[in-house]
Every structure is written in C-alpha cells, then in structure tokens.
Write a structure and sequence with these properties.
Keywords: Membrane, Transmembrane, Transmembrane helix. By secondary structure, this protein is mainly alpha-helical. The chain contains 3 helices and no strands. The radius of gyration is 18 Å and the shape is elongated. About 0% of the residues are buried.
Amino acid sequence: MKHPLETLISAAGILLMALLSCLLLPAPSLGLTLAQKLVDTFHLMDLDQLYTLLFCLWFLVLGAVEYFVLRYVWRRWFAVR
C-alpha cells in the first residue's frame, strides 16, 4: 500500500535535489581539443551546441540517479508497513 504523501514527498525531494545538484555539482568540463573533436565527430555547429547537449545529458543522468536514491530511501526508511 502506498503512503498518501509518497508522491508529493518524492516530487518535492527530486526538485530539492535537482536544485542542490545545479548549485553544488559542477557539470563536466571538457578540454578544448576534446571538445573540438566531439564537435567534428557529431557534426555540431559550435561549442555552444555541444555544451548545451552535455549539460542536458548531465542533469538528466543526475536526476535519474537522485530519483532512484530518493525512492530507495523513502521506501526503505519512511514507508508505512
């Protein structure tokens, strides 16, 4: 049986963790030679496009990890049995 506040707490926790990761966890920084090589490999217009894609993927991965960590913590320690 699901706890009535599980959905609300999960969403609030995910938003809080996303805010913290945006503020505290730096996105990966590539060197100029590697960045240029990736731009050429993926046929991108410029470095701005590469870093936009990189930041989107980075925060998507962080969000997925945070979701599963929060869900595990919630179900492990706070779930009503």
